[in-house]
From TrEMBL, chains A, B:
Pfam families (UniProt xref): PALP (PF00291)
Protein name: Threonine dehydratase
GO BP term, pick one: L-threonine catabolic process
Gene3D superfamilies associated with the record: 3.40.50.1100
Residue ranges constituting the Tryptophan synthase beta chain-like PALP domain according to the UniProt record: 34-322
InterPro entries: Ser/Thr_Dehydratase (IPR050147), TrpB-like_PALP (IPR001926), TrpB-like_PALP_sf (IPR036052)
Keyword terms of this UniProt record: Lyase, Pyridoxal phosphate
Lyase among keywords: yes
Originating organism: Bosea psychrotolerans
């Protein structure tokens, strides 16, 4: 279409939802991510799809040195820090996966990494942070107490704070998953995203709402850690006193206002699922797709199990965001 | 270097081992393979490497619609058949994985696929061949009886025979795994390859012996299905009366002479491993790398467990060639 003489230049940015994120920056982020975290497998699982009554696309983010998607965001953050004049040190609060990712991306660029975690954090994840050269500080309480401590350290000016989901690099890094899905498949009716702090949901959601706006963006939280989902419904921050879920990777209590705004602009549906459905989802990945997943990676299948009509016959992409589980715990879930 | 006047043109092919395979054709094969089977994850597993006493690189061939590497070969074979004047039908004998791969690659190109299997073949694999649109004929006996039947069908002229490992497309397709490893990593001391019919071993072996000749090419068979390994040692075809191994994907009794010749030119070491080591290898992938593997995929780790000194401190690449197991069988192995 030719622009009409005298009319303003076409505003391509108008097609993007109103979030802090930007498609062009997400495309640039892709260049800053090591090959080991990019261009991950995406394929139809006919067997699992048949069981679930839909055409299921698996997007596998676990076949990398840290077993989860978070390397995409930390690669972007550490790449930008390395070329800045900031301190060559970084700190984050993490239940484990972000900590592993930051330790990996920091070490690759000569940046010292400290990870703050609650004393109840997953032991296997903590061990792997050490193995990747990160320093770990355990604090009383949960991830929210750890976030507070990380902010204190950063406020002293000694380290760059990577606040998951608040930091745009973590969202835009995660958003590169969306680019790969949109570019690699001719149609996706629904994308299923675990909702924790919000980086994965808003990053991938931003890409879909820009390039494939008809795709239903479904972001799922456990009923036992519902703060951001409740905030989305109320269109206003809601917090909770505690969390009670096996999905440790998504268990936050204090949503970030800016992230909620982004989520309001990108998510179409934000269901809460039961713990039993999460376990059944992990069993299905194991039995029908030979995949070991952590609970947060099974939130999408849990959502299908609780509301099959919404997904029946659709082409549904499930992002398998992590596989960091203790083997004995996983075995118990598989046997229950 | 300028060629001396009157001298023959430089013979770059002299750097290749003397096999039926050709590096240029392997490079071309890459173009004929769907993205879904190519450029698979390859990454260091620090946790599993620490346990094994080496720097372990995992090359993951299971995150695709058929859960194994064999799509690489069938993509090449069916792509070439589709552009030929041959029958638009193909037949193969298969314990399951080749059958799934051929059904997938045939359907994508409008080629009818028949798979012949012994009645004892893995039920989950047979079911998946059906799901992918392939026809399955079960015959009395094992894979060798199935091979005979497939040859009969092809001899009638009704279908193109894909004889695994004898057919060069299957070897050169598998060889693309080697290209990805050599191009993606600056050094690999040892590559561990399951040895069944020989396509994977000779395909990847040919690439390494051409582009990275110092790499130790180790091809592993189970002690319960040792025909090709014994042939390699004797430098002459040896057959066995029976096989007795859980590694159904590599259990052949009648090696192919041309493949043995290729293996003699590419393999540096061909150990036989115990069943208990294979099970322990699967347990290690599960516990330390969150991977479900079929027994043939664990032959490499089994070899490390039985001869750790050979691999200590080395950078060792293990090709995870398949994940098609019955969940209940796998669970039993994990618990033993």
């Amino acid at each position: 279409m030719q622009p009409v003489s005298g009319s303003p230049a076409p505003d391509f940015s108008a097609t993007q939802p109103n979030t802090r994120l930007d498609l062009q920056r997400i495309r640039q982020a892709r260049q800053e991510i090591s090959r080991v975290f990019r261009d991950t497998p995406q394929f139809l699982s006919a067997t699992l799809g048949d069981v679930l009554g839909c055409e299921l696309v698996i997007k596998l983010e676990t076949a990398n040195p840290i077993g989860c998607f978070k390397g995409r965001g930390t690669e972007v953050a550490m790449s930008r820090l390395a070329s800045s004049s900031g301190p060559m040190a970084a700190v984050c609060a993490s239940a484990g996966n972000l900590g592993q990712a930051l330790a990996y991306s920091g070490r690759a660029r000569g940046i010292a990494v400290s990870v703050i975690a609650g004393k109840g954090a997953n032991a296997a994840k903590i061990e792997r942070i050490h193995r990747l050269g990160g320093t770990v500080e355990l604090v009383d309480g949960d991830i929210e107490n750890a976030r507070e401590r990380a902010r204190e350290i950063a406020a002293r000016g000694d380290a760059f704070l990577v606040e998951d989901s608040e930091n745009l690099d973590t969202c835009e890094g995660a958003g590169t998953i969306g680019l790969e899905l949109v570019e690699g498949l001719d149609r996706i009716d629904t994308v299923l995203l675990a909702l924790g702090g919000g980086a994965l949901a808003t990053g991938v959601g931003h890409v879909f709402k820009t390039l494939s706006p008809a795709t239903d963006v479904v972001c799922i939280q456990p009923r036992g850690a519902p703060a951001l989902a409740q905030s989305w419904r109320a269109r206003s921050i809601a917090t909770t006193d505690r969390t009670d879920t096996i999905a440790d990777g998504v268990a936050g209590r204090f949503p970030i206002a800016a992230v909620l705004d982004d989520l309001l602009a990108t998510a179409d549906h934000v269901p809460l699922v039961e713990e039993a459905s999460i376990v059944e989802g992990m069993r299905m990945f194991y039995r029908h797709a030979a995949l070991v997943t952590e609970p947060s990676a099974a939130l999408g299948v849990a959502a299908i199990l609780e509301d099959p009509a919404r997904y029946r016959g659709k082409r549904v992409a499930a992002v398998i965001c992590g596989s960091n589980v203790l083997p004995d715990t996983f075995r118990a879930w598989m046997q229950g």
